[in-house]
Amino acid sequence: MRKKQWLTGLGLGGFLMFASLDALADTATLNQAGTAWVLTATALVLFMTLPGLALFYGGLVRTRNVLSILMQCFSIACLVSVVWFVFSYSVAFGDGGSAQAVWGGLGKMFLLGVSPASLTGEIPETVFIMFQMTFAIITPALIIGGFAERVRFSAVLLFSLMWVVIVYAPLCHWVWGGGWLAKMGFMDFAGGAVVHINAGIAALVAAVVIGHRRGFPKTAMMPHNMTMVFTGASMLWVGWFGFNGGSAVAANGSAGMAILVTHLGAAAGSLAWMTMEWVRHGKPSILGIVTGMVAGLGTITPASGFVGPSAALLIGLAAGWVCYWFTQFVKQKLKIDDSLDVSPVHGVGGILGTVLTGVFAAPALGGTGFASGGTMLHQVAVQTLGVIATLAWSGILTFIILKAVDAMVGLRAERDQETEGLDLAFHDEKGYNLETGNF
User: Do 304 and 188 form a contact (C-beta atoms < 8 A)?
Assistant: First the structure.
């Protein structure tokens, strides 16, 4: 009897020992410092949308539409979070098997197989899921700036749901999930193509399909609250350190360099835009300097983990100059009412930064080298192919989704709703109840 108990105890002890060793094996590569940093970066990126982008966009629209923008940003954050859990994370980062080049499959729907012990690299997979979710949240939130002040709330929700599943998740897989662009050596450190070009072309297509706001371009449609714009823009700048620095997925020199070049790109973009405006109009403006900042940030994003400080300065200056001129071109020459300049700032900035990554990543210029393993010319060709693929994929599918949404619920607000303002028309609320003294 004692012998049997002894053997049972020995077996149980052995099992516990091996179970402990197995647990140690699962956590042996866990990097606690990296995990802590990505957790922090996740909070920073969500902070970019709520409240950063919401306040930035909210201040840019007219008084009668401020709450509609805040509501859209908030509801998109909620909706995309659920969609990411159900479908999109699997499509973006799952194992697609024989179809791995184009999508990740549905094997990780509802986060099947994900546990606290699951690792992605050296961090918990749960942390990676949440970090990438914040990128999926801000991208469709950026798009609403292209059609602000004239779209039904139901249409915004349906469009965002379809877009993040059909457009965003597969493109994310191509670039970051081991898809065909990644295999070619396409370089996009933190979302030049996945986020900025993707959102920029979608916003442009939406602005064309939906049409301009009533009164555009003859009626001036100035931002209603520049203090709100400045506050939101400042939050975006701070949050962007998590956006780019967190994309290193580690607490290391790559993350540090990404943050440094991000800051320099933003500063240079701000100064370039402010100078252009000052020379042309005689006075610099808050709207100009913060828009230049966003242009600099969007343009340095794809290059942030691959280039040095000097390159970041040049990229930021180019962003401020090029994006400034494109804002004039889109609205004045093309007469397209991209309400909050998403396509000329994020789209053009993303294209510029993605292509310049292929130049300034050269070791001779202080960069980390080319992912394609070829020459500068070859890397620029790969970058250009990635830009074209993103424009085509997002542009065509966005058009189809918009038409489908229009057929299902209708895109455009009614004339009287647009005149009254979307705040009252769709939410029965006002941002400012000035007539009652409730400031």
Answer: no
CATH superfamily of 31-431: Ammonium transporter AmtB like domains (1.10.3430.10)
Evaluate if pTM is beyond 0.90.
yes
Output the six-digit token pair for 145: 């700036």
For 27-83, what is each residue's pLDDT tens digit? 448 999 999 999 999 999 999 999 999 999 999 999 999 999 999 999 999 999 999
Cα–Cα dist 248/122, whole Å: 11
Predicted pLDDT of residue 295: 98
CA separation for the pair 136, 93 (Å, rounded): 12
Q: Output the six-digit token pair for 362.
A: 């050269």
Q: Report yes or no: 343 and 146 within 8 Å, Cβ to Cβ.
A: yes
Show me where the domains of the chain are located: 31-431
What is the pLDDT at residue 332?
86
Contact 224, 416 (CB under 8 A): no
Residue 410 zone, left/alpha/beta (φ > 0; ψ -120 to 50; rest) = left
Q: Count the Cβ atoms, other than its own, within 10 Å of residue 116.
A: 8
Instruction: Give the 3-state secondary structure of residue 438.
Output: strand
Q: Where are the beta strands (DSSP E) in 39-128?
A: 119-120, 123-124
Helix (H) or strand (E) holding 12: helix 2-27
Nearest to 349 by CA among 232, 203, 242: 203
Q: Is 228 exposed, middle or buried (0-12, 13-18, 19+ CB in 10 A)?
A: buried
* Pairing, β 119-120 against β 123-124: antiparallel
Residue 395 CA, chain-centre distance (Å), reads 16
| CB atoms closer than 10 angstroms to residue 218 | 5
Distance CA 333, CA 323 (A): 15
Q: b/e map of 378-404 (b: 16 or more CB within 10 Å)?
A: ebbbbbeebbebbbebbbebbeebbee
Bond from prior residue into 51 cis (ω within 30 degrees of 0): yes
Residues 6+ apart with CB under 8 A from 319: 265, 268, 269, 272, 292, 295, 296, 298, 299, 300, 349, 352, 353
- H-state helical runs in 84-212: 89-93, 125-143, 153-163, 169-176, 180-184, 198-210
- The rounded Cα 138 to chain-centroid distance in angstroms is 5
Three-class SS state of 433:
strand
* Distance between start and end Cα atoms, the chain: 83
